[in-house]
Amino acid sequence: MPNEDHIDFIHAFNKTILNESQIKELEGYEKQYANKSDQFILREIYRIKPTVSANVINQHIKNLDHLYQMEGFVNQEQKKRIMAVKKILSRPSQRAQSNVEGQFFVGSALLLWFLVLAAIWRRPYYY
């Protein structure tokens, strides 16, 4: 079960970088994906990835690399999850990219951000 302090940090972090409508969109995603399995979340990352620009995906990969190296912030289980998400993001997409979004926190790019965080730090109600 995730550490409540880490979850609080993630929510506080999101509130510092996202506007009110983006926060509401994330809250909608929390409800939509609340009862989904880990495997479903990982499949959704793979499904959504082609709708997001390569630049944004590369930013996610770099951020995951930084998170992985943060001593005391991530435990071994979260490091395994980071590597699984990074592997999905790094894998070439099977389908062509269409309607690719280049902004980090808009539309499907925001959904991808949510799914990446959900895949690593699952909230208690996901279990």
Largest sheet: none
Number of E strands: 0
Can you give the helix content as a percent range? Answer: 55-70%
Distance between the termini: 9 Å
Query: What is the radius of gyration?
Result: 14 Å
Quaternary arrangement of the chains shown?
A: single chain
Binned strand content: under 5%
Shape: globular
Order of helices and strands: HHHHHH
Q: How many helices?
A: 6
Helix/strand structural class? mainly alpha
Q: Any low-confidence stretches, pLDDT <50, length ≥5? A: none
Global mean pLDDT: 79
What attributes does this structure have?
mainly alpha; globular; 6 helices; 65% helix; 127 residues
Structure in words:
By secondary structure, this protein is mainly alpha-helical. It is built from six helices and no strands.
Explain the layout of strands and helices:
Blueprint: H1 4-17, H2 20-32, H3 38-48, H4 54-68, H5 76-90, H6 107-120
Helix pairs in contact: 3-6, 4-5
Task: Summarize the model shown.
The chain has 127 residues and is mostly helical.
